[in-house]
Design a protein that fits this description.
single chain; Aspartate Aminotransferase, domain 1; Aspartate Aminotransferase, domain 2; 7-stranded mixed β-sheet; 4-stranded antiparallel β-sheet; 17 strands; binds 4'-deoxy-4'-aminopyridoxal-5'-phosphate
């Protein structure tokens, strides 16, 4: 795994991060009489005014269903929705006809499970997952394995929370048909070497599915350059509305896949004797989509592009370094996940305290962190803990907010011990 690229100085100095932060209305509010310190962006990200405005503008002035009506509003809605697909395709560097819009990563991964894996896998086949997966990238494969007789193998981690790559290569035996793994871990922040893993999988004819939920909001992602077969992402973590996201898939794979859900929009012709399905991506978009949501998501992508994803990544690396240094002052604090290449997600525990108590007391200080198992039971079990606290940062956070977290941790630790 390569060392993280040094932060280009211009990326952090040329941008007025305070002015960028000021575009997020929710960050102005107080909680329990204290200024909100929002450190839960891995759970869901906050939205800039431009995204809120895009959703409101569509809803107030253009609302109609897509692809059906010939009236003016119907055309405007269709144009805006398909324009959103184009914007998102450009943002990820993929073809627009290979981009299925859906409610987010959970839907996207289930779509691959039900439409690609279920019809193909059979007893004797294997699926490889990793120890650091979110439940959304475990449970759909278990459902497929149960119904097909395929087995699941798990790639393990080093104590630092990096993938044990030699171990992974050993798992990629001839019966493996599919490898599904996170681009970035939502618990450890580990950034996996996606290109290298996809290259090794492709050499062995294994189909790759990448869960990009925690990568797309925080670093430039050129999906075409990764060499994967499917890439899933979720909109609400990248400044977009909830219930948005997508699945990119190689055209030749999408073309072979049967529909996941049936209904309107996904057909060319319906007769009681039989139905002709639409081409991808429409084949996988049955029913009325989240039109306003995806228009908001495209506004988010354009807005992020305006700031610059490389600058966002550099800013967050700077904040992560600040947090890592500041947290060393808290006695008994242990950080889970110290990968060499790591996103700004910090899972931690303080000896003698429970994560939920910590998070509850932090909330009284206005500080929002997540506590629990972070939808990653197998990972927490491997670390031998029942819960951790997780502070997850975004470019709109500040050094002062991290210092507020550390000061509050000193205080609540004393209350609890
Ligand atoms: N994978 C990862 C790594 C995640 O962090 C999340 C969200 N916590 C998901 C999948 C699921 O995303 P969604 O709930 O938006 O479908």
């Amino acid at each position: 795994m390569s060392a993280p690229a040094p932060t280009p100085p211009e990326a952090t100095t040329a941008i007025d991060w305070a002015a960028i932060r000021a575009q997020f209305p929710v960050l102005e509010r107080t909680v329990h009489g204290k200024p909100l310190v929002y450190l839960d962006s891995a759970n869901t990200g906050q939205k800039p005014q431009a995204v809120i405005d895009a959703v409101n503008e569509f809803t107030a002035h253009h609302n109609a269903n897509v692809s059906r009506a010939v009236h003016a509003l119907g055309s405007e809605a269709t144009e805006a929705y398909e324009g959103a697909r184009s914007t998102l395709a450009r943002f990820l560097n993929v073809r627009r006809d290979e981009l299925v819009l859906c409610s987010g990563t959970t839907f996207a991964l289930n779509l691959v499970a039900y439409s690609w894996a279920l019809p193909r896998l059979k007893p004797g086949d294997a699926i490889v997952l990793t120890r650091m997966e979110h439940h959304a990238n475990i449970v759909p494969w278990q459902l497929v394995a149960e119904r097909t007789g395929a087995t699941i193998k798990v790639a393990e981690l080093t104590p630092e929370g990096e993938l044990d790559l030699d171990g992974l290569w050993r798992l990629l035996t001839p019966e493996v048909r599919l490898l599904a793994f996170a681009h970035v871990s939502n618990v450890l922040g580990t950034v996996n070497p996606v290109r290298e893993i996809c290259r090794e999988a492709a050499k062995r004819g294994i189909t790759t599915v990448v869960d990009g939920s925690q990568a797309v909001p925080h670093r430039p992602v050129d999906v075409a350059a990764l060499g994967c077969d499917f890439y899933a992402f979720t909109g609400h973590k990248m400044c977009g509305p909830t219930g948005t996201g997508g699945l990119w898939g190689r055209r030749e794979l999408l073309a072979q896949m049967p529909p996941f859900l049936g209904g309107g929009e996904m057909i060319k012709e319906v007769r009681f004797e039989g139905t002709v399905f639409n081409d991808p991506p429409m084949r996988f978009e049955a029913g009325t989509p989240n039109i306003a949501g995806h228009i908001g998501l495209a506004a988010a992508a354009a807005w992020l592009d305006g700031v610059g994803m490389a600058a966002i990544e550099a800013r967050e690396q700077h904040l992560l370094a600040h947090a890592n240094a500041a947290l060393t002052t808290v006695p008994g604090l242990r950080i889970f996940g110290t990968a060499r290449e790591k996103a700004a997600v910090i899972s931690f525990a303080i000896a003698g305290t429970h994560a939920h108590d910590l998070a509850t007391l932090l909330d009284l200080e206005g500080i929002a962190v997540r506590s629990g198992q972070h939808c990653a039971h197998p990972l927490l079990a491997w670390f031998g803990v029942s819960a951790t606290c997780r502070a997850s940062l975004a470019f709109y956070n500040t050094e002062a907010e991290i210092d507020a977290l550390v000061a509050a941790l000193h205080k609540v630790r004393q209350l609890l011990l």
